[in-house]
Amino acid sequence: MDPDAPRRGGGRRPKRRRLSRSAEFDRVYREGRSHTTRYLVVYSFPRPESAQPARLGVSVGRKVGGAVERNRVKRLLRNAFWNSSDQLPGGHDFVLVARPDIGELARERGERGVTEALGDLLREAGMAAAP
Q1: What is the three-class DSSP state of 55?
Q2: Residue 125: enclosing H or E segment and its boundaries?
Q3: What's the rounded Cα separation, in Å, for the pair 110 and 96?
Q4: 93: how many CB neighbours lie within 10 A of its CB?
Q5: Res 100: pLDDT
Q6: Does residue 56 contact residue 96 with C-beta atoms inside 8 Å?
Q7: What's the CATH class of domain 18-124?
Q8: Which residues of 28-64 are buried (b: 16+ CB within 10 A; e: fewer)?
Q9: Could you give the C-alpha distances from 93 to 16, 30, 43, 69, 102, in angstroms and in order?
Q10: Domain segments of the chain: what residues?
């Protein structure tokens, strides 16, 4: 496969930049630091191999809405996170937990609202610089 060829699947990130196993999520929940806003909770945990890029896990519960809405919120959160990833410390695992109010925010303000909510949370947590 040609490394310069365009990737299929749009702008999706490689799987290795995602948390996928339950044990990975559990470690971040147990040992990481958390910060909360009305819409989101972020857990962060520095990995020992800190030269690695940040990895992300997303958790969206049923209180946010039906499956279609939950999947839309997950997609919006991933996009917002990766768009701001250059401001984040490398070598960390992050888990974003959506709170029920984010479903309404996503319906009313779409991607812009979710991006602003995530940016506010990361700045309050001291993980991203002010705009």
Answers
A1: strand
A2: none
A3: 17
A4: 22
A5: 94
A6: yes
A7: alpha beta
A8: beeebeebebebbebbbbeeeeeeeebbbbbbbeeeb
A9: 11, 12, 8, 25, 22
A10: 18-124
Mean pLDDT, 10 residues at a time, the chain of 131 residues: 46 68 89 93 84 86 95 94 84 91 93 93 80 57
Q: Which amino acid is at 36?
A: T
CB-based contacts of 91, cutoff 8 Å, min separation 6 = 46, 47, 49, 50, 51, 52, 53, 54
Task: Return d(Cα 67, Cα 31) in angstroms, integer.
Answer: 30
Query: Which residues neighbour 59 within 8 Å (Cβ) at sequence distance 6 or greater?
Result: 25, 95, 96, 97, 98
**Structural contact between residues 86 and 2, judged by C-beta atoms closer than 8 angstroms:** no
At 16, phi and psi to the nearest 5? Answer: -65, -15
- Measured CA to CA in angstroms, residue 110 lies from 89, 90, 104 at distances of 26, 28, 9
Task: Please tell me the predicted confidence (pLDDT) of residue 66.
Answer: 95
Q: Report the alpha-carbon distance of residue 131 to residue 70 in Å, rounded.
A: 28
- Token digits for 72? 């839309």
- Residue with the two structure tokens 């999947």: 71
